Amino acid sequence: MVIPGSSRLASDKPWAGHDLQLNRRRSRKGGFPPYLGGTCRRNMVLMEATSGVPQSGRDDEYFLGTDHGRLVDLGGLGVRFKIYSEQTGGSFAVVEHPIEPGVLVEPHIHQHEDELSYVVSGTIWARVGDTEIEAPAGTYVWKPRHVLHTFWNPGPEPALIVETISPGGFERLFEQIAALLQDPGPTTDEDVVALCTRYGLVLDQAWVPELQARFGPMRMV
Q: Is the dihedral of CA 210, 112, 69, 63 positive or negative?
């Protein structure tokens, strides 16, 4: 276009002149000018040093297949560990939850973590505070800390959700509960409550009778 009052043509790329100057400087020594190249190099080194993810570049660190990660069973609620908090500098962790039909996760409150669930397949129900929804595949469920919540699969089909937990570290509780359930010795409710308390998890069964009455008998995990 022609700028009114001027014969100068305005480029569609207002930065084109800067590109030309940069290219001229770059061509002198075959690279970016020292003041820019040094900044880029320093920033790249800083990113590598502080990103909190493995830097070796192996495919299995960045691209996680459907069977990637250890799978444990908590009695109808599975936990597949996809990303541990150690891989993210503690900022978050990711697990998958396969949920069998007829399973209710005991209502609870997180003191330290926020959770975001994504329903991959099947349909679950969820209650967060006073809000209850039916969540088919493609639904996100946001569960902030300090808010009582639960989810369940009344059936008839299994479901799968992906859970992002922030900050990370809480995923270790699932490992410890699985180990507790596999222990040949007796496991009491007090053992489970004590373990949950260490991770700031508060259990509350106030909603359970109503949910069981409306959706039928469900195994609580």
A: positive
Q: Tokens representing 196?
A: 């949950």
CB of 84 closer than 8 Å to CB of 168: yes
Alpha carbon 95 to chain centroid, angstroms? 7
pLDDT of residue 188: 85
Q: Which of 90, 99, 218, 111 is nearest to 162 (CA)?
A: 99
Specify the amino acid at residue 105: V
Could you give the CA distance from residue 12 to residue 29 in angstroms, rounded to a whole number?
Answer: 29
| 9, 12, 14, 19 alpha-carbon torsion, rounded to 10° | -100
pLDDT for residue 58: 55
Which of the two residues, 63 and 24, has the higher pLDDT score?
A: 63
User: How many residues would you count in the chain?
Assistant: 221
The 10s digit of each residue's pLDDT in 129-175 is 999 999 999 999 999 999 999 999 999 999 999 999 999 999 999 99
Domain 69-220 in CATH: superfamily?
A: Jelly Rolls (2.60.120.10)
The domain segmentation of the chain, as residue ranges, is 17-46, 69-220
Q: Which two tokens stand for residue 53?
A: 């993810």
